[in-house]
Amino acid sequence: LTVLTSNRMKQRTLAALDIGTKSLKMTVAKVEEDGSLEILGVVEEPSFGVRKSVVVKPEETAKHIAALMRKAEQMTSFSIEEVVVSLGGSRLFAVSSHGLVAVSRADGSISKEDVDRVLQAAQTFSLSQNQEILEAYPTQYVVDGEQGIREPIGMRAVRLETDVIAICLFSPDLKNLTDAVLKANLEITSVVASPLAAAQVMLSPQQKEMGVAVVDLGAGTTSLAVFEEGDLKHIVVLPIGAENITHDIAIGL
Fold first, then answer.
1. SS in 3 state form for 221-249?
2. I want to staple 43 with a disulfide (CB 3.0 to 4.6 A). Which of 13, 25, 71, 206 is the partner?
3. Is there a contact between 61 and 47 (Cβ–Cβ < 8 Å)?
């Protein structure tokens, strides 16, 4: 989510946009001093130009995003200029990767720069044309062969390694999504994979630690995110949703 400041009401607010197969949804919330959220409004608009959670007609989708934004502004009395957007679709996928670097400091102390370098090294792998990495999530660090390290900064070592789960996507899907939001006169501060957005809302830290899978059944897709020992293990988006069930029943009857 992104932090916005209203000129009329000097307080921190958040705006998030979800582009689904059947509907567009926007939520606006106020951030309290303790970090908790107060929901100011949730609005919904029919979705057009979207197929199986992927924007296929950006200009058509943009018109309905703009209408959704106006509804949210009227409901909350906030001027919305930027949003965080969820990205779905069956061309979203996860890749496990490994990175290794030599610790740069002469005294062998692992710095934040070393961590950044090893994360970048883990993201250096081959992808097909029109595919790119959205974000990478480390599952563990390995310090001189010692596995299962969560926070390596400050430790002394010669070699630093990491295992990551890289969330990848089909680049044209991201371009169409971005075009639709920009054409609605909104800025994008971040793009979040929809299975991870659902997991963030639904799962507690204890559930992630014990091991859990969260399934989000939408109209055109079904997403799955798996967690264990607090870490993301896998995500997948299937091109089948509730709409398929409705169509099957309609044909059968």
1. CEEEEEEECCEEEEEEEECCCHHHHHHHH
2. 71
3. yes
In degrees, rounded to 5, the angle at the alpha carbon of residue 176 between the alpha carbons of residues 171 and 182 is 125
Looking at this protein, which amino acid is placed at residue 154?
A: G
Give Rg (Cα) of the chain.
21
Cα(68)–Cα(144) distance, integer angstroms: 52
Nearest to 142 by CA among 158, 125, 126, 166: 158
Average pLDDT of the chain? 92
Which two structure tokens, joined as six digits, stand for 77?
Answer: 């009395």
- Is the per-residue pLDDT at 45 higher than 70? yes
**Which helix (H) or strand (E) segment is 113 a member of?**
helix 112-122
pTM of the model: 0.84
Query: Is residue 61 helix, strand or coil?
Result: helix
CA angle 177, 181, 186 (to 5 degrees): 150
Distance from C-alpha of 111 to C-alpha of 107, rounded to nearest angstrom: 11
Q: Is the pLDDT of residue 172 over 80?
A: yes
Q: Which of 122, 92, 110 is nearest to 222 (CA)?
A: 92
> Does residue 9 carry a pLDDT above 80?
no
76: exposed, middle or buried (C-beta count within 10 Å: 0-12, 13-18, 19+)?
buried
pLDDT in tens, 128-170: 999 999 999 999 999 999 999 999 999 999 999 999 999 999 9
